[in-house]
Prior knowledge:
Blueprint: E1 11-14, H1 22-27, E2 32-36, H2 41-44, H3 47-57, E3 61-65, H4 74-87, E4 92-96, H5 98-110, H6 118-121, E5 133-137, E6 149-154, E7 159-164, E8 172-175, H7 185-203, H8 211-233, H9 240-252, H10 267-279, H11 283-297, H12 303-314, H13 323-340, H14 347-350, H15 357-364, H16 378-387
Parallel strand pairs: 1-8, 2-3, 2-4, 4-5, 5-8
Antiparallel strand pairs: 6-7
Helix pairs in contact: 4-5, 7-8, 7-9, 7-11, 8-9, 8-12, 10-11, 10-15, 11-13, 11-16, 12-13, 15-16
Bound molecules: 5,6-dihydroxy-NADP and zinc ion (ZN).
The site of 5,6-dihydroxy-NADP has 36 residues, from α2, α5, β6, α7 and α10.
Amino acid sequence: MQNFEYYNRTKIIFGKGTEALTGQETALYATRILLHHSGGSVVRTGYLDKVKKSLSAAGVSWVELDGVKPNPRLSLVHKGVEICKREKLGFILAVGGGSVIDSAKAIAMGALYDGDVWDFFEHKKTVAAALPVATVLTIPAAGSESSVSAVITNEAGPWKRGLNEECIRPVFSILNPEVTFTLPPFQTACGVADMLAHIMERYFTREPHVELTDELCEAAMRVIIRNARRVITGAGEQDYDARAELMWAGSIAHNNFLSTGRIGDWGSHQIEHEMSAVFDIAHGAGLAIVFPAWITYNINEDTPRLARFAAKVWGVDGAFYDYQQAALEGVFRMKNFFTSIGLPVSFKDAGLDGAKIPLMAEQAVKFGPVGNYRKLHAPDIEAIYRLALT
Ligand code: NZQ
Ligand code: ZN
């Protein structure tokens, strides 16, 4: 097991009606804030009004910035930075999913920096400080509500780039599973693929003895798969308990507890980010395409671990297969699962054209080879995209 330090400052406030606590929690930090959201689902469902009511009751006023789109754009981040500087705002509340939260995190860094916040995403400058960010989460998926990451799309490329900074980890996050009742099945499924991917990125490690986190990862993945079936393929869209399991699992998947003592891979995320940049595809849908191809490409790399994944997560009975066959059967079952919840598992399924594959592979390695389980260079990544074509 690797040495590690574990620290996660995000206070999680979880459960029914918890959005009513937004005001009192925010007031501990500021009485005038930037309120950031999409202007879409949170308005339609009336959830934003509940949050505003709670803010008002606690004496918190706000300047509002809406318009965040999935795969959040740099241009809106610039606008948010300008507002925070002009209005001298010292706190940002994001109401929404990973896209809104990441946009808020980027604004938080830009508000305390004289140059262009994109410098940080290009690794040209290091982040010195950020405004505090808090979240009211509306979709379990990205895990951004307690992560150190932000992922932004610069329309000029388009380039999609992420960074990790402790100072952007939210100070608190409010998670009410009831708000996820309104999620369309496809969005729920994208979230499920993303949280599974966050665990798989950590699970596929070369670290030989990480028994506790190995088994926690396996258990978390089984719980996600079981409850996803309950919500999406059953009549479970208003099934509070299943929604609650998914919402908590989404945070656990990415709050770094499951990374302790191990070195994760993260190649598939880099490979997917190029897909989101070029096709503007939902991140989770892109991962459902990339991850089975990544495992297939690595079928001869530490095959016992791939076979164990097939056995413990997908119920493949090792007695009937050799390691390699078991691993491939695991991939087959994973693809079936993704398909059954309405996700694409190939470029073809998603209606994507493969013409830009060489360019995407080059972009993915702009800052060097990706992945730790196996270092991938542009030709490897191109081969993975091609495995995912049909
Ligand atoms: O835009 P609106 O109208 O609000 O609708 C959203 C959006 O279309 C909808 N939605 C959200 N909550 C809803 C709802 N619809 C009905 N009812 C609700 N309660 O869902 C759609 C997707 O929202 P989005 O925020 O884009 O989803 P997600 O949370 O999956 O975030 C994706 C972004 O996060 C990044 C991804 O790359 C992508 O840009 N990631 C961020 C990470 C991080 N910061 O730690 C890690 C991840 O690996 C990921 O890369
Ligand atoms: Zn992800």
